[in-house]
């Protein structure tokens, strides 16, 4: 049995830091019933939501710019003139600016968001015609609509096909200004007044419908983007982790909490978690972000890495002279160390322990030189020392390589703490906004 200090754990547990969404199978309606099936829990507190909200305007801008406004046709009968037909074509948005975004967490309901001082110019073409027995006119004119809008969205989080999804159908726009400007002075004043009266109303409906639809679409794109990012982060070769949610997220005044399965998949095998010990009291609220991770998540991951041949290390030169206190003047030694059985992790309030068995082979550089083979046996004290000195360095380079490959260094993680508990680990931290993720998301959204 090897006792390891707390600073051993961060490279391993950080594997779950970005893993918030991923497809899975079904959800339980009651989060309390889902605790036992949840291997990983994520708690995002109000200060963290405030940091994310700082960039909400960028996402809303993407929704406005990405929206495609359909052509609209209509008609109206007027005295003396007869039937007036019109069509709005090529509606585009220009000069978009957004003031500020505010939000509120509403327990048991969702998130209330207010986007204020949205100003934009919508440009397009009006095709119109009118006629009577005396006159028949058909024409087109370019137009602009100057607008100033407040936008309200009340997203509700739910379980959609095993992942966190957002329903933004509760969406409304308040128009403080909507002024129609026709290009050129040749149009009669009555025509401008007519268009101002009923075309601006039509434009309102078109803008509201398309913007709210686009916000819902962008929310889904964002969810898919986060899911894909998390899936890529947790996948390496044939090893992946299914962290689909076990129940809908819970929203309180102070945090949003989601419950994830944390099942390891390797070579068509999936682990099972059905006796998790999570309770909300295990987490506090003074940090921005919390992860609660069960040993039942870590051990299948470690087993899969062992079965995939990840834990091996070759040592030669001066490292061997320091590490192997044995006669070696007759050769240039190389020490090869690998895991010969799956390590077993167990955490407690005292720290963490790993039970592991490692094998080693000492080569002396000549094919005619005898090789020294050895294997640890846990029941001997010297084997405990051997496991600590030789086996953990086998794990650490592989974990560091994996984290570097997956891009953990791109995230601004502030003052992380790893707190081992009985059968689980709590990871708590503050963080800065991941600007590179926003840039990548906006790039893909606006392609």
Automatic annotation (TrEMBL):
Signal peptide: 1-26
Listed GO CC annotations: high-density lipoprotein particle
Domain Lipid-binding serum glycoprotein N-terminal: 43-269
Keyword DNA-binding: no
SMART domains attached to this UniProt entry: BPI1
InterPro entries the record matches: Bactericidal_perm-incr_a/b_dom, Cholesteryl_ester_transfer, Lipid-bd_serum_glycop_N
Localization, UniProt: Secreted
Disulphide linkage map: 171-212
Keyword rRNA-binding listed: no
Alphabetized GO MF terms: cholesterol binding; cholesterol transfer activity; phosphatidylcholine binding; phospholipid transporter activity; triglyceride binding
Pfam families for this protein: LBP_BPI_CETP
GO biological process: cholesterol homeostasis; cholesterol metabolic process; high-density lipoprotein particle remodeling; low-density lipoprotein particle remodeling; phosphatidylcholine metabolic process; phospholipid homeostasis; reverse cholesterol transport; triglyceride homeostasis
Key words of the record: Cholesterol metabolism, Disulfide bond, Glycoprotein, Lipid metabolism, Lipid transport, Secreted, Signal, Steroid metabolism, Sterol metabolism, Transport
Family: Belongs to the BPI/LBP/Plunc superfamily. BPI/LBP family.
Stated role: Involved in the transfer of neutral lipids, including cholesteryl ester and triglyceride, among lipoprotein particles. Allows the net movement of cholesteryl ester from high density lipoproteins/HDL to triglyceride-rich very low density lipoproteins/VLDL, and the equimolar transport of triglyceride from VLDL to HDL.
Protein name (database record): Cholesteryl ester transfer protein
Species in which this protein is naturally found: Myripristis murdjan
Name of the coding gene: CETP
């Amino acid at each position: 049995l090897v006792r390891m200090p707390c600073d051993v754990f961060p490279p391993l547990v950080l594997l779950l830091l970005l893993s918030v969404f991923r497809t899975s199978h079904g959800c339980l309606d009651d989060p309390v019933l889902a605790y036992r099936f949840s291997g990983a829990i994520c708690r995002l507190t109000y200060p963290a939501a405030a940091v994310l909200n700082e960039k909400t305007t960028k996402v809303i801008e993407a929704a406005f710019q990405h929206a495609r406004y359909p052509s609209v046709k209509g008609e109206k009968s007027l005295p003396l003139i007869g039937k007036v037909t019109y069509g709005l074509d090529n509606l585009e948005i220009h000069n978009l600016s957004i003031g500020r975004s505010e939000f509120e967490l509403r327990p048991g309901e969702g998130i209330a968001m207010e986007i204020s001082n949205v100003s934009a110019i919508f440009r397009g073409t009006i095709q119109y015609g009118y006629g009577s027995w005396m006159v028949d006119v058909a024409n087109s004119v370019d137009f602009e609509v100057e607008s100033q809008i407040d936008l309200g969205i009340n997203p509700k989080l739910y379980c959609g096909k095993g992942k966190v999804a957002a329903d933004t159908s509760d969406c409304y726009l308040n128009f403080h200004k909507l002024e129609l400007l026709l290009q050129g002075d040749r149009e009669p004043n009555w025509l401008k007044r007519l268009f101002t009266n009923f075309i601006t109303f039509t434009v309102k409906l078109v803008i509201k419908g398309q913007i709210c639809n686009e916000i819902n679409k962008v929310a889904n794109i964002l969810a898919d983007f986060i899911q894909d990012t998390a899936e890529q982060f947790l996948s390496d070769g044939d090893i992946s982790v299914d962290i689909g949610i076990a129940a809908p997220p819970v929203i309180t005044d102070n945090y949003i909490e989601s419950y994830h399965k944390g099942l390891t998949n390797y070579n068509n095998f999936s682990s099972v978690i059905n006796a998790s010990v999570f309770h909300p009291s295990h987490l506090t609220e003074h940090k921005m972000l919390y992860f609660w991770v069960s040993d039942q998540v870590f051990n299948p991951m470690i087993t899969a890495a062992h079965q995939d041949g990840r834990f091996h290390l070759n040592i030669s030169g001066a490292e061997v002279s320091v590490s192997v206190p044995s006669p070696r003047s007759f050769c240039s030694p190389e020490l090869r160390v690998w895991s010969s059985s799956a390590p077993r992790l167990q955490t407690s309030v005292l720290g963490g322990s790993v039970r592991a068995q490692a094998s080693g082979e000492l080569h002396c550089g000549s094919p005619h030189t005898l090789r020294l083979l050895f294997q640890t046996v846990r029941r001997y004290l010297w084997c405990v020392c051997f496991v600590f000195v030789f086996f953990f360095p086998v794990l650490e380079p592989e974990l560091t390589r994996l984290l570097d490959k997956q891009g953990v260094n791109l995230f601004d993680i502030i003052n992380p703490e790893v707190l081992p508990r009985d059968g689980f680990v709590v990871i708590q931290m503050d963080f800065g906004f991941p600007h590179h993720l926003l840039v990548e998301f906006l790039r893909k959204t606006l392609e």
